[in-house]
Amino acid sequence: MPVVLGKHIDESYYKLDHRFEPQGKPEHPLSLQLIAFRDACEAKGGMRMGRDVPSRAVAPFLSHMLIHEPIGDWDDARVRYAGFGIARFFGRDVTGLKQSEIDVGDVSGTLRELFAAARGIIADNRCCVLSHRAFNGNTEITHEELVRFPIIGSEANSRWILTAAFTF
Question: Is residue 111 classed as helix, strand or coil in its secondary structure?
Answer without folding.
Answer: helix
